[in-house]
């Protein structure tokens, strides 16, 4: 006889994490609309407090737009070292309950608590205790979603934000998904949601009603995934410490870069930041990507995959500069430059595999 164990998955998501840390550390900011980021030039909002969100301010929004929506918005610079420290505190709490912790970012993670280390009888009780401990340790609130798979748990964590939790019990996933707009599904971005809407698929119920072959015909392999989640199905496991696939750095400049010298200088600065990460993690990659956004917002990328992982800072700069040089002469000014290192491997392997960049 085969017994099937129903998983107990929690998705924990900190509430307005960066902005809440700033409000915690500066009492003058509490209760006020706060944005982490830069208000000058082409700055963007990295995070917004809930007070700012009531005005429609959102992360990734240009600062000028945010200020139009909320003239009293207070901008504060980011402090990523502080956020990383708090994130480590939170993850230590997670590991008191389960070794199966899959971080998605500094402020959210999946936990499989099917067999939790505390022996708590339910995932609901486990989530409540974790949230209480986070509050006690950091003075910050977290929201949680509890369900029998990752897709549903992530949807659930948005239901009672901030400082709340929500459960989708076994057998109720399909009914819960049916009433939601497809744009709320994790993994379906705005453009895909628009395409689905044009096909008459607005809700989860609409998506469930479509034949799998129809969805695959319009969306390729993703169509099969959309069919599964429309039925509340997701068999992905919580995977602790997923290997990072890439590391990148990019900057939007206050003034367009108009000469090759300016672009190459920017590429070198981005490569410096990427290599700082390589040295900290002892991990490198064999694919170098240079990204540029022109003044008309068109994005172009150039990439090169080497025979082995990049083994030195100088090699990274050399490859990145050569990729950037393919953009010259510039057809117009460039407002953003980025450098990414992908196809990662431990740096010890990179030392062995690296080949000349010629």
TrEMBL record:
Which residues does the record give as Mg(2+) binding sites? 13, 107
* Residue numbers spanned by region Disordered: 231-256
Record site: Substrate discrimination: 18
CDD domains for this protein: PolY_Pol_IV_kappa
Reactions this protein catalyses: DNA(n) + a 2'-deoxyribonucleoside 5'-triphosphate = DNA(n+1) + diphosphate
Quote the catalytic residue positions: 108
Q: Which Pfam families match?
A: IMS (PF00817), IMS_C (PF11799), IMS_HHH (PF11798)
Q: Which UniProt keywords apply?
A: Cytoplasm, DNA damage, DNA repair, DNA replication, DNA-binding, DNA-directed DNA polymerase, Magnesium, Metal-binding, Mutator protein, Nucleotidyltransferase, Transferase
Recorded GO molecular functions are: damaged DNA binding; DNA-directed DNA polymerase activity; magnesium ion binding
Query: Cross-referenced SUPFAM superfamilies, in alphabetical order?
Result: DNA/RNA polymerases, Lesion bypass DNA polymerase (Y-family), little finger domain
Q: Which residues form a coiled coil?
A: none
Show the PANTHER family listed in the entry: DNA POLYMERASE KAPPA, DNA REPAIR POLYMERASE UMUC / TRANSFERASE FAMILY MEMBER
Question: Which protein, by its recorded name, is this?
Answer: DNA polymerase IV
Q: Which lineage ranks, top first, belong to the organism behind this chain?
A: Bacteria, Pseudomonadati, Pseudomonadota, Alphaproteobacteria, Sphingomonadales
